[in-house]
Design a protein that fits this description.
Distance between the termini: 10 Å
Helix content: 10-25%
Number of strands: 3
Radius of gyration: 16 Å
Shape: elongated
Length: about 70
């Protein structure tokens, strides 16, 4: 699955931001465009890393994907 990544340079600081518009809160930054993209890839992998959850009673977890 591919996601759009918007990278932009802040002209005041000279740093770069990297934001995934479709994934609220999943963003990163860097001193260079390349570093911002690398950091964003890491943020994306951490965003989708499963976390341990306690399931109630007969609940179950299913894996699904978009068509």
């Amino acid at each position: 699955m591919k996601f759009r990544l918007v990278v932009a340079e802040d002209l005041e600081t000279g740093r770069w931001s990297a934001v995934f518009p479709e994934i609220p809160g999943c963003a990163s930054a860097g001193d260079t465009e390349r570093e911002a993209v690398r950091n964003a890839r890491q943020a994306l992998s951490l965003w989708f890393k499963p976390s341990k959850i306690k399931l109630p009673g007969r609940a179950k977890v299913l894996a699904v994907s978009a068509a």
